[in-house]
Amino acid sequence: MQFPRYRARRLRATENLRRLVQETTLVPHDFIMPLFITPGQGVRQEIASLSGQYRLSVDQAVEEARAIADLGILAVLLFGLPEQKDALGREAYSATGVVQQAVRALKQAVPSLLVVTDVCLCEYTDHGHCGVVDGEHIVNDLTLDLLSQAALSHVEAGADIVAPSDMMDGRVGAIRQALDAKGYAQVPIMAYAAKYASSFYGPFRDAVESAPQFGDRRSYQMDPPNVREALREVRLDIEEGADIVMVKPALPYLDVIYRVRQSVDLPLAAYNVSGEFAMLKAAAQRGWLDEERAMLEALTSIKRAGADIIITYFAKEAAQLLSVRC
Q: Has 248 been annotated as catalytic?
């Protein structure tokens, strides 16, 4: 029998051979770790739908940040649970809000760690929507001023990067203008540029108690069947001043990550969202999957599709595993 001159299996024979020719490599500094900040002292409350993830008071977030930095992870992404919610989400842009407090504490305790802040109103509004509401209509342009105030309050507290996630039209430009006017032209914006109206956000909404009290978010988040629209959204955010663009979710939208990567040369982030994390955790807990292998395979697929940055609740676990393998 005549065999071909090239045998693909030659380079798969051992672990070291496979690693030598590996095309896509995960490292801890690929990851951003999300943290949920809650009022109080000494609070470390596990989130039922996000196994191993916690609502943390500021003091506990500082301890968590130290552990994260020690693993070689370069950044955290902060979400806040306010003392009180109201129609305008006032604690989102309060200088004494939980996120603003956490930013100051983290930058003092772990100055090398990059602190990224989510800029949105949904965690802070009593109606659970990402903008100002008029009846059941989300008012786009009135929301922009509040988002700009929130971003500015984060930066004044010491945030290294702000990340608007609301999907209001024009919010990147409004935030860029507000930051520049106050002398913060050097602060980058990581825009949730292609954020889909996904069913994979359920555990996150449980974590921050942000489920909409009426309707849904499909009038401002993207329709899942669309990819050309995602490319338009990305271009618009870049034109408005985004420094990093993001696709969210990640695993059901690997094709979108790939298409965005082919069309722009800015750094590209992808959010491995709560539902993606929870599915793997649940399957692993039932013995249906090898958790470590499934986790690394999923994260590798996101990077292979073109993401430079992966926001993931697996960040600590993956970094620990990768450090052992190195």
A: yes
